[in-house]
Amino acid sequence: MTFQEIFDGLEMSKEHSKLVSDKLKQIDVTKGETLLRPDDRTLYQYYVIEGCLRSFFTDRSIKEHTIQFAIKDWWISDYTAFFKKEKAILQIECIQDATLLRLSRDDMNEIFDKVPGVERYFRIKTESYIGSFQKRIIGDLSKTAKEQYLDFVNTYPNIEQSVKNYHIASYLGITSESLSRVRKEIVKN
């Protein structure tokens, strides 16, 4: 994947392309590896070239709540902590071997200052994330488990082969048993 593909065809000079490529550090992570833990300083956001990650929160009763899955062409971080320079409340784990690009807040700001159009790219991505999270919250409050599952399948096509059932259930806010019932109901119909 080229930087032009990541930035949706944004025209960049060679100098700007080099600056961006120097700031985006490619890393490989293996299944089970943790990129961020609660109380860590949130130094980076990650762009997924290949693989799958998830961010989640563990409550006081040690129940996990999956906040986001990140698949190819998605960004992931604990954004509250990343933007406010606070300690993480989320954990990010690799659930399928992945190749990522890592970007620090300082490097992101330097790119914004020096490369025209990149800040707009991130603003558009952020607007999309905010809209998606708002729709998800409204769905969690108003939709049935079946409707939420169908939304999940549309948002993350082909992801079910890569993630465990309890990850999907925790994303949907239901039990694994309820997820099995929903799937059986869909197959039956």
Describe the structure.
With 189 residues, the protein is α+β, with helices and mostly antiparallel strands. Helices cover 46% and strands 24% of the residues. It has helices at 3-6, 14-23, 79-84, 105-114, 118-142, 145-155, 165-172, 176-188; strands at residues 25-29, 34-36, 44-58, 64-70, 75-76, 91-104. Strands 1, 2, 3, 4, 5 and 6 form a six-stranded antiparallel beta sheet that branches. It is globular. 25% of the residues are buried. The mean pLDDT is 90.
Architecture blueprint of SSEs:
Elements: H1 3-6, H2 14-23, E1 25-29, E2 34-36, E3 44-58, E4 64-70, E5 75-76, H3 79-84, E6 91-104, H4 105-114, H5 118-142, H6 145-155, H7 165-172, H8 176-188
Antiparallel strand pairs: 1-6, 2-6, 3-4, 3-5, 3-6
